[in-house]
Amino acid sequence: MNTRELMNIALRLAGLENEPYDTIISVEGDNIQKILIGVDMETPEMLLARDLGYDLVVSHHPKADESIIDFHKVMDVQIDKMVEFGVPINKAQKALAKKSKSVEINSHVSNYSRASSAAKLLNIPYMNIHMPSDLIGERFTQKYLDEKLGNNPKAKVQDILDALNELGLYEKSLSKPVIRCGAATDYAGKIAVLFAGGTNGGSDVYKSYYEAGVGTIVAMHAPEDVIKDVREQNIGNIVVAGHMPSDSIGLNEIVRAWEEKGMKVTKMSGII
To answer: Residue 172's beta-bridge partner residues?
Structure first.
């Protein structure tokens, strides 16, 4: 297989027709048989792949390739997610604007070709699949929690932790699901799983969810400023499911699909 065919499999599994701004093939490749994949894969991992005879390096995070320049644009999918949970579209756009601008400013000054230029010099195919795997993980976890707790109006935040820990990936992870805002005995209310959308949308985005009736946000990670603001305003609960196990949900599904096509895939660098 080639890199385009492998990318198309990932996009299809996520329900996407084209690569989002945070998903890119930096170095094309043909006759791929052995793949080395991880959450963060840069120059050291490429050297390892070359020495071990791999045909392709796949990173989840787009930290050091050309896609980082337009990374902020992928955040617009968060608007659709907010609308899905009852936030008016105009309010959703304004809620996201502050964080989106901050990401754009930081991305603009980044070294956007550090990893991709190394891949070109090493002549090793290299790509990342950020949004596809995040979408797969988000949809799976939302459906799972809805089925487990959706019919229980008095489900507690602890019930969310218990449900997540029943999944093998979270059970195996060193970074277990934790409560960052609220208490284990608090009612969970309506649950919104926010894994996709580039990065955390910030305090204004969280506030818009709570005002629209969401009781608990389940995220891969939440920055300290968001946790502080939500705690101070006492407006909702935050459960941080864990970054590596949450990323691993979608990545593992994509890996399984590649393996079904005959690929030999080795997982490392954060994938559980």
So the answer is: none
Judge if 3-130+247-264 and 136-246 fold alike in CATH terms.
Answer: yes
How do the domains of the chain map onto residue ranges? 3-130+247-264, 136-246
Average pLDDT over residues 122-128: 96
**Which residues contact residue 188 at a Cβ distance below 8 angstroms, ignoring those fewer than 6 apart?**
149, 155, 156, 157, 159, 160, 215, 216, 237
Helix (H, G, I), strand (E, B) or coil at 256: helix
Phi and psi, residue 26, nearest 5°: -80, -40
The fraction of the chain above a pLDDT of 90, given in percent, is: 85
Contacts of 89 (CB under 8 A, 6+ apart): 79, 83
The whole-number average pLDDT for the span 8-22 is: 95
pLDDT band at 68 (very low <50, low <70, confident <90, very high): confident
Which CATH code fits 3-130+247-264?
3.40.1390
* Residue 66 pLDDT greater than 90, yes or no: no
Pairing of strands 126-129, 23-27: antiparallel
